[in-house]
Amino acid sequence: MNYVQxxxxxxxxxxxxxxxxxxxxxxxxxxxxRSFNLPYDQYCRSLGAADSATTWREIPAVPQAAFxxxxxxxxxxxxEAAAFHTSGTTGExxxxxHFYSLRLYNEAILKGWDxxxxxxxxxxxxxxxxxxxxxxxxxxxxxxxxARAPGGEQHWCVTSDGALDIGRLTQLLRTPARPVLLLGxxxxxxxxxxxxTGDHFDLPPGSVAFETGGYKGSGRTLTKExxxxxxxxxxxxxxxDVVNEYGMTELSSQFYTRGLGAxxxxxxxxxxxxIDPATHxxxxxxxxxxxxxxxxxxxxxxxxIQTRDLxxxxxxxxxxxxxxxxxxxxxxxxxxxxxxxxxx
Amino acid sequence: xxxxxRIGGIAEACRKFEPLLGPASAEIFLDWLRIExxxxxxxxxxxxxxxxPSLRAIPPxxxxxxxxxxxxxxxxxxxVRGLLxxxxxxxxxxxxxxxxxxxxxAALPAALRARVEFCKNLPDAWLPSxxxxxxxxxxxxxxxxxxxxxxxxxxxxxxxxxxxGIVFEDADFQSVQAAALDASLFDQQxxxxxxxIYAADRPEEYAARLAVQMARVQATDPxxxxxxxxxxxxxxxxxxxxxxxxxxxxxxxxxxxxxxxxTVIFDADPTFAISPLNRVIFVRPLPEQDPATALASARxxxxxxxxxxxxxxxxxxxxxxGASRICxxxxxxxxxxxWRHDGRQTLAPLVTWRGWEGx
Lengths: 344, 359
Prior knowledge:
The complex is a heterodimer of chains A (344) and B (359).
Chain A: H1 3-16, H2 22-36, H3 38-47, E1 62-63, E2 82-85, E3 96-99, H4 103-115, E4 123-125, H5 137-144, E5 154-156, H6 166-174, E6 181-185, H7 186-196, E7 208-212, H8 224-235, E8 242-246, E9 255-258, E10 270-275, E11 288-295, E12 304-314, E13 317-322, H9 336-343
Parallel strand pairs in A: 1-12, 4-5, 4-6, 6-7, 7-8
Antiparallel strand pairs in A: 2-3, 8-9, 10-11, 11-12, 12-13
Helix pairs in contact in A: 1-2, 1-4, 2-3
Chain B: H1 3-15, H2 18-21, H3 26-37, E1 54-58, E2 62-66, H4 72-85, E3 88-92, H5 99-107, H6 110-113, E4 116-119, H7 126-129, E5 132-137, H8 139-146, E6 154-159, E7 162-167, H9 176-184, E8 194-199, H10 203-220, H11 228-246, E9 251-255, E10 263-267, E11 280-285, H12 291-294, E12 302-308, H13 312-320, E13 325-328, E14 352-356
Helix pairs in contact in B: 1-4, 4-5, 9-10
């Protein structure tokens, strides 16, 4: 089966939100990627993995960092339609996610949004616009979400030099006539709250904030509880009004949760498995491990990615712990994050 | 208590902790006092130490030690320094406790044991009551306490550091046993633990032989259990290395079979990168030209370079790379009591002096 045929079938599965389609498509995708994604095939061979799998759980996952070391694409370089770059905060350069087509990517964004019950509201965006950040997957996602803003009403609030446009934000948030959707990274919201210096806005009921990412490399640390407390005190948003997105440049799909303590939910074309890093076996329900993600929308790259993010298994979903620096190895030997924060 | 009385009790307790602290004796401690304070009885009365006034060293009445987890030897060393000076020692342990520190205190004679007090949650009264504050920890921890220090208090901070080994010459790979020992002791948690061994000659073969020795150390001295996060870090570096090797990059992986007990990674790129620790050791080629560039990211944090062979010309070479301590490979975790911790003396900065312009 070729790329276009697989793309059509996966597109149908995304559109139908049909979890039953996952197993067969994952196996076909694995076979396809072993055939056309040479670095992935080389890695699988080094693991002694067979060319075809009998269940999707047998499919080898590449470490997330692999995207920094090789072009993981199942198509010729000349056919590339887009490429998104990772932020490169680990000091080893950045990774690149290559795309033959953004069709599945865009479909996954919008269908995932709808399945998570996220609202169609005028959008206030604290993330650079796609034109000024063409290699940012998050900026691209924000652009795609224009389809979920009534009348396409999006207000971009990052200046050309990458700083938050506090004046414009203040103007937009002070007296909104209707509920709004605020979209930004956790760090961008923190900068907004810093700039508000004690000021607060009461957003109309029905308003929602979408936050994503952490504070890595910024030298800032803040618990999610504290951040969400600031959403309440500074913007009048209750816990349930704040949505966390878990995603990454190396994936094409997203996971969402609302408020605190609830698991992130996988869309039907994605599987998230929590792995014991010592044995590489799935942990029992309620146990902590590292997240391994199988994303059918990653057709042109790699279906299965092994992340470094810690999570607690909650049935077929997970509660994200992330790469909390406090969970990193302790001792007086210096850690990567410390070297980063000392040099930033 | 006189200095001599204290030293007897301290040396006796230290001998029970030799694996952590290395050799200790009354004579070693007397030498230490002579080196740092100029006279072994400088704490007991006026001494003629140098031309000019006679001098007497006055220790801090109270020292507050803020110690970090997983590096008990550093905590014990700090306590020994305070006890040797004759100070009263308040010791803030990590939240999870530090059994070695409490066991060490229990091994002291009663008169010295009475001069040590522990807590896991810092009482409000401790910090203002201390004449000197010694902090071991991250930059963040140090900054936190530095901001709370008053001008009258002495403040010594030991931040997290990086160490490495350099094998300048070793035709027969005789140093691999020493390198494996340094990379395994305390599971690399200490700031004297090597993240990487630079080998000037045949580094890939060196890595293969080091792997054999890492397995031997594991057989006699198994690594401690890991947290999920620590295991995740090892899994990530192993799989990333395996991926890089599979696509033809000049890297190679040796790993403990069926476990994450030890990992050796050869990487032809000489650029320093930190290890995830817990017995994950890199082997890289030592660049003939400009090794300083390869080590640039480590230099601001560099503590110890273990060298082989341990000769003066190679020591000068290592010193030029920015190490504050240079020692023989195999001795990285065994600094003498007189070592300059992060390039500074450890007793002298804690005392003040009284001078007598007498006869």
